């Protein structure tokens, strides 16, 4: 079985490899066709679906997976949110959301100005490429849940649904 993951981000690739250990996993930096920084649950979910569909268009013999991070307001509070989508050979689309955690209120002005969370995180932590490592989720959970682990859970939700609906 071949799986195409629509990203070059190592946390996303590693999460797919962990949950599909017997598959050959390839990565393609496909467009999400949403903002670089999705700003709602809906836009983040759509980005994941668009990536998964783009993956099977590029590689029609594979299953496509899209994983997308975003931010969203709940009332006046800004949360990190995450979504995943799996598209199979019959073009059935399975979706699942991942963890949400509150971001510091001090992030709101930069993020509403259009600065990406990845860049805000690097400045905040004085580290490089937090997005490719522990992620915002790792930083703000004191490394109890890192970005790969968070996406592992999302990919499990995708694989499980895909298996369930294919045996029934
Ligand atoms: O190469 P891709 O797959 O696009 O990976 P990415 O790190 O850019 O991740 P997303 O596009 O899914 O996320 C959209 C934006 O939100 C940022 N982001 C989302 N979750 C994050 C996290 O846990 N830590 C740091 N930045 C995050 C990310 O860096 C982008 O600026
Ligand atoms: Mg991105």
Automatic annotation (TrEMBL):
Its EC number is 3.6.1.73. It comes from Virgibacillus oceani. The lineage of its organism: Bacteria, Bacillati, Bacillota, Bacilli, Bacillales. Residues 6-155 form the Non-canonical purine NTP phosphatase/PRRC1 domain. Keywords: Hydrolase, Magnesium, Manganese, Metal-binding, Nucleotide metabolism, Nucleotide-binding. One of its GO terms (biological process) is nucleotide metabolic process. PANTHER family: NON-CANONICAL PURINE NTP PHOSPHATASE_PRRC1 DOMAIN-CONTAINING PROTEIN (PTHR34699:SF2), PTHR34699. Transmembrane segments: none annotated. It comes from the Bacteria. GO terms for molecular function: ITPase activity; metal ion binding; nucleotide binding. It is an enzyme of class 3 (hydrolase). Its cofactor is Mn(2+); Mg(2+). NCBIfam families: PRK03114.1 (NF002850). This is inosine/xanthosine triphosphatase. The keyword Transit peptide does not apply. The keyword Thylakoid does not apply. It catalyses: ITP + H2O = IDP + phosphate + H(+); XTP + H2O = XDP + phosphate + H(+).
